[in-house]
Specification:
With 134 residues, the protein is an alpha/beta fold. Helices cover 32% and strands 22% of the residues. It has a 5-stranded mixed β-sheet, with helices on one face. Strand 4, helix 2 and strand 5 form a beta-alpha-beta unit. The longest helix is centred in the middle third of the chain and has 17 residues.
């Protein structure tokens, strides 16, 4: 049985969550409850919209012409996407196979850092490039 992600919503033509036109996946669930959070409706960890990676890839494929023509990609946000790190890791692996750029929007604030490292090891940062993001 394929793993499922608990997805809050999808934005198919995002322009502020990474380079180019983005397919943005907002994950459901976040324990931080930040005072000025702009996605408070994603805090609850109750099951919302369960979707498999295959189903999500079919949705992304529909936006691929826009993604490709703008050097865009897929951004995962939330909520906190790394609460569902296994799903994010497998999704990113599939997207990388298809040469689709990925962005991870995370607060990286939890006690189980192995979740974070499972996803982040998919990235290769050079020192110079990494510094441009901070």
């Amino acid at each position: 049985m394929e793993i499922q992600g608990n997805i809050h919503s999808i934005e198919t033509f995002g322009t502020v969550d990474g380079p180019g036109i983005r397919f943005v996946v907002f994950f459901q669930g976040c324990p931080l409850k930040c005072k000025y959070c702009h996605n408070r409706d994603t805090w609850s960890t109750e099951k919302n919209n369960l979707i498999t990676i295959s189903e999500l890839l079919r949705e992304i494929k529909r936006s691929k012409p826009y993604i490709d023509s703008s050097n865009g990609g897929v951004t995962v946000s939330g909520g906190e996407p790394l609460l569902q790190a296994k799903f994010v890791t497998e999704l990113f692996k599939e997207l990388h196979k298809q040469k689709i750029h990925t962005c991870l929007d995370t607060a990286r604030k939890f006690t189980n850092y192995s979740r974070y490292f499972r996803v982040i090891k998919l990235y290769r940062f050079s020192n110079a490039r990494h510094k441009t993001y901070w």
